[in-house]
Predict the 3D structure of the following.
Amino acid sequence: MESVWRFLKSKQGITIIGFLVLVILVVVFYSISPNQTQAVLNSMIRHSTPLILGALCGVMCERSGIINIGIEGHMLLGAFMGYMVNVWTGSLVLAVAASMLTGSLMGLLLAYMSIKLKLDQVIGGTVINILALGLTGYFYTVGLTTSGKIMTFPLGPLADIPLIGPVLFNNGFITYAAIVLVFVLHFFLYRTPWGLRTRAIGEHPEAADTLGINVIRMRYMNVLIGGAIAGLAGGFLTLESVGSFERAMTNGRGFIALAVMIFGNWSPIGAWGAALLFGFATAMQTQLQFMGIDIPHQFVGMLPYVLTIVVVAGLVGRTHPPAAEGKVFEKE
Amino acid sequence: MFKKISVVFAFVMVLSLFLAACGQKNVDCTQEDVLCVGLVTDVGEVDDKSFNQSAWEGVQKAADELGAHVEYIETKDAKDYGTNIGLFAEKGYDVIVTVGFGLGDATREAAATHPDIDFIGVDQFQADTVANVAGLMFPEWKAGFQAGALAGMLTETKLLAGVYGTDLAPAVVAFAEGYEDGARYIDPAIEVITTYHPGGFASGFTDPEWGGATSKQAIEQGADVIFAAGGKTGNGGLIETANYPGVFCIGVDTDQWETVPEAHSCLVSSAMKLIVPGVFDLVKLSSEGAFPAGNYFGTVGLAPFHDFDSSISQEIKDKLAEIEAGLLDDTIKYEDFR
């Protein structure tokens, strides 16, 4: 009995209880109003996709010691280039590749500024954000049309499961990719030598260096991969969800992704949970308006941010940023 | 090392200068015989396929027909409203057009310091009259009412949805209320769900992804006509709705058939504000010395049905014409509904 109680109070215990409560709530709501529940959960997945991709970029960069404030910029340029390649070639495969490539090029710029030039990383990221806003604003011309966007494809019989099927298994390619990436990155980060090295150079690069890890190369590589993931987030906006580009259309999602990353304690699965929470709050905010309920919907929209502050302030749980993030690494 | 940083920064700065310095012409606006018209956009661009663009077209019409020298400034951040207006005022422009409710306060402040310049505030309601400010207003409620009536006659599920920019803009709320009232005028049993973007002026009109996701959420709950009013946010809603066969969408401000081709498969009409002639008329009146201070009302109406023209019955068209006439002679009026 004692040990059961201790398990329930532990971190895993709380997570499992929380998860069960959520499942029960969803089932209850689903039995009352299936259409609404499904629509809200669909909306949650959709809102969370760019956030989790952005947050994964943040995890990749910060775990290896580079603060990436420029996720917004990666996303916006990725969204733009993906869109333009879709306009020019009509090939969605090339377009997705272009948005990822653009994201990683921006990652390269950030890595160059912060590793080679030893520029303050926050300033480096800000430069990227401003650059992205300016470049896309200038080069975007109105009136372009594409031949189409990425359509949803149901995953066979999985999509026929009530509620779970339409929500999880009837999405576009990038949404699937985002969910798969969460688990792949989580596995790589905690179960492979590459992950151990990545975490090491983010915590104590000098020690890692002494043990023969090429800190600079690893940082370049990780920021490049992270940039590609953020570029994919941009691609999601222009190639899968909206299907068209508008200036400044990322609208701060790159910054919210940072909050998601922190809320998720710099781990991919944690960040996914946080992204779903943020997505759910946005969907609920809309749903409350649908239902004509008179509590100010802004409060619901505010909730995840308040929670983030609570978590960061250390009131509930603790977050552990990588110890060496933002610090310049000088090889001895 | 420091040198390298400098090189990178120099490059970035030169680039931004390059981008900023496009389209400068030297005209002396302080001279009596030169008519200079400046336009300051709301946060967004002059080619936003919507509000800013229509106002700018009105100004360009003044350039063509009155030989005016015209320029625009795109506002990048809501805190720059005053600064941007000041740029034109200092150069001695004769007429300054400010686009959007958000610029209302900044416009009136500038009007107080520059009594010799005429200000046209698109969508800016004037609670009291200032001699050199004209607020170009549109009865959005009437435009929304016509859209709602059309939607009410098209719907089969008896559930409509409106996806809007921020509710901080009275014009947006007027559209939304008109849409609800118009639908219920056709059939009181029709339900209308109304959603405003939570982001305020900063992002309420520039978030197509939110507009798209919200429209989807509404359609999945059975809404079958979507009225999307809110700049790019609304455009996102229109494009999203085009994915669902059998669901109609209605655009706003301009004839969005021309501006959002992606939405052709659902776009049945648009609740138009005729901004172009409104702005032009005011500029013309200013140049003739007959500037009407206070509120100046432009006209609204539904855009053509385009591809849907043949599928909309004569009965519906007659009813819409009857409603339009009723709105004009005030037999249908706001006070009866609210």
